[in-house]
Amino acid sequence: MILRGATILCCLALPLRAETVADQAARASVALNQAVEALQQAETAKNRVAALTTTIRAYEDGLAALREALRQAALREAELTLRFDAERDRIAQLTGVLSQLEAAPGPMLLLHPSGPLGTVRSGMILADVTPSLQAEAEQLRGELAELKALQDLQISAGGTLSRGLSAAQAARTALSQAISDRTELPRQFTEDPEALKNLLESADTLDAFAAGLAPTANDTEDFAAAKGRLPLPVMGTLLRASDEADATGVARPGLTFATRPRALVTAPWPATIRYRGPLLDYGNVMILEPGGDYLLVLAGLDTVYGEVGEVVAAGAPLGLMGGDDPAAADLLASAQEGGGARETETLYLELRHGADPVDPAEWFAIRKE
């Protein structure tokens, strides 16, 4: 029930193209508020780990949609304001004419100084002009109403973001506790601790360490059949593609993503945890074996979940990115300024077949920004 409800939340977070910016922001606000409410149900769910994971994902989707809607709302508000300023005199004349037409007594409109012929001519002119004036007035009225709705929505967004941030932090804390409370974990095998320690001490690069963990081919999951449709393990923006050099000139065979602070990292495919913990200068690293002689390397996490040898399902939580959640005011300010999300953390993703790296871009459904 929880999973179904949170799936609906994720769908609600996606704006429809036919909607106005205000409608999109309103729908995103509803989705974010429902994600907050889902936390209470997740606390009492039988499978708390799955329920909390889905709740956090719904929050992240709703927040992303709300931030984008607010960004579009700020741009639309600026556009309308500039238009009103540029056409201030013409709009004032239009409203003045309309007010005079409405205020003038009916019989007076039928009179004309030049007599009956002038009255007929003025009536014909008014008949031609009035519909155009009314249409422009209706458009003006609609844009003013839209501007008011955008302003109201940006004011109310502060409270929505505050509740969302508090609920997300509570959900992350509860998720960490729920994972630590688990006692019976499905395991495929247990690594030899001594051999893993020796490998960790002897490896001077991520390549050497991953090569030492290279699995033998197995048929537990047809991982190769998922090529091109794997979901990304984290919500973020692609920074660097495979073999693309960074600012220091170092090129790596994996993908580098920018993520928001405390973003949730999940398993894109059922897999066995082969390693989790700090490694060289990569921060915390999670290495998964999804089957078929493949290894999936995720580096740069702040918090990692699970144990070596544990079998995790697709979508299972693997850990959290680092950093601190910004205040609601900061999120709102950056959105209103037209800026994107503050994605200050980086996750490195590498896929290996045996001991050799392969381009992960061919495997994952990467969203185009």
Care to give the gist of this entry?
49% of the residues lie in helices and 15% in strands. The protein is α+β, with helices and mostly antiparallel strands and 369 residues long.
Describe this structure in words.
The protein is of the alpha+beta class. The chain has two domains: 1-183; 193-362, Glucose Permease (Domain IIA), CATH 2.70.70.10. 49% of the residues lie in helices and 15% in strands. The protein contains eight helices and eleven strands. The chain has helices spanning 2-12, 21-44, 48-86, 88-103, 116-181, 193-202, 206-212, 328-336, and strands spanning 236-240, 255-259, 264-266, 271-278, 284-291, 294-301, 303-304, 311-312, 317-320, 345-353, 356-358. The strands form two sheets. Strands 1, 2, 4, 5, 6, 8, 10 and 11 form an eight-stranded antiparallel sheet that branches. The chain has a three-stranded antiparallel sheet with strand order 3-9-7, with helices on one face. β10 and β11 form a beta hairpin. α2 packs antiparallel against α3, α3 (48-86) packs antiparallel against α5 (116-181) and α3 (48-86) crosses α8. It is elongated. The model is unreliable at 1-17 (pLDDT under 50).
The run of helices and strands is HHHHHHHEEEEEEEEEHEE
> What proportion strand?
15-25%
**Oligomeric state as shown:** single chain
Rg (CA only): 29 Å
Share of helix, binned: 40-55%
Number of helices: 8
Unreliable segments (pLDDT under 50, ≥5 consecutive)? 1-17
Which helices and strands, and how do they pair?
Layout: H1 2-12, H2 21-44, H3 48-86, H4 88-103, H5 116-181, H6 193-202, H7 206-212, E1 236-240, E2 255-259, E3 264-266, E4 271-278, E5 284-291, E6 294-301, E7 303-304, E8 311-312, E9 317-320, H8 328-336, E10 345-353, E11 356-358
Antiparallel strand pairs: 1-2, 2-10, 3-9, 4-5, 4-8, 5-6, 6-10, 7-9, 10-11
